[in-house]
Amino acid sequence: MTTRLNPITTPRHQLRADKARRNKEAALNAFIGKKAEIDEMLARLQALSDDHFETHPDEVGWAMVGTLEHYASVLKRITDSAFGEGEHAE
To answer: How far is CA 30 from the centre of its chain?
Structure first.
């Protein structure tokens, strides 16, 4: 727990520095939380892929191909954005 500075007795520059520090700390916490969300989604997707998307070879049909094509296109948009590729290339 952090102690907040008294705005009456603390110089302005110190108040601004403290506010900036707290803001940076909050941003870091939010970043770590979002990363954890992504890690969880990636782990779930990897497990589903490892299980062949819960599809037995005898059950594969064009509908499943279409579903995987959709998944692949969404993931491609994400990876293109993350790596500056495709429409996100500079």
So the answer is: 10
pTM (2 decimals)?
Answer: 0.76
- The residue type found at 75 is L
Collapsed DSSP state (helix, strand, coil) of residue 55:
coil
Are the C-beta atoms of residues 68 and 53 closer than 8 Å to each other?
yes
Dig out the tokens for 33 from the structure.
């939380």
Q: Render pLDDT for 14-71 as a digit per residue (tens, 0 to 9).
A: 888 888 999 999 999 999 999 999 999 999 999 999 999 999 999 999 999 999 999 9
* Contact predicate 83/89, CB 8 Å: no
Residue 34 Cα distances to 31, 38, 39, 62, 76, angstroms = 5, 6, 9, 35, 20
